[in-house]
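Feature request, filed as a ticket because there's no other form

It would be nice if the structure record came with a short human-readable summary line next to the tokens. Right now we just get the raw output. Example of a typical job, pasted below so the devs can see what we mean:
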Amino acid sequence: MAVYRANGIVLRRTNFGETDRILTLYTREHGRLSAIAKGSRRPVSRLAAATELFNYGRYLLATGRNLDVVTQSETRESFPNIRNDIHRIAYSTYIVELVNGVVEDRDPNYELFDTILSCLYLLEGGVDPEIVTRSFELQLMMISGYRPHLESCARCGAPPPKEKIGFSPSVGGVVCENCGDLPEDTIPIHRQTLDMMAKLLTAEPAEIRDLRMSNGIRVEMANVMRWYIRYRLERELKSSEFIQALKSGANK
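Raw output as currently delivered:
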């Protein structure tokens, strides 16, 4: 069997048989791939840590007939602070589920890999998980070719008004009333929300650490991104529902 190395992040793991796990890895060199970690559920397995969700490591894999095989691993970051906080677990799970829903197998993208890793490090470092996630959503859409049109009306090119701004998931950005009736899926947002979206679209990790968002902006942006991503994926993410349940519980 041919052997190769890859830097990877665990997006998903599934128990297989009595002692094995099947991993979905997003690797910097080879994109998304599936591999089996044999015996990794045994307490003494040297591969056990490498199969944990979010784990970032260096993997040695052998090509197989149906699944590649993880033969060795070196964990570079296990993100213990994420694992010890239910809210950070929820947002990190959403991030990796979103990646898994967008990418294709064996289609590497260095920029996306580095963006995922940066977001996990920000979450590990205690940065506001909602801000990190909104930033990731916007940057993922941009990397995937679905950059939302925020600078002007996506239909006529007119500058967005100072008030009564609308965002249409089906059109792909800001829309105005000057060029016709608004699409049925138009979501009203405030100018401050639009400005924050534009900032997060290109923000560097150091900038994200220092950003603050009002509750109104959080609610509007979460709604816009939920429907924009749902339009692109044509489905709702399970982890998104979990985050909503956590928020509802915190507000009671």
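Something like this underneath would help us a lot:
The chain is about 40% helix and 20% strand.
The longest helix spans residues 215-233.
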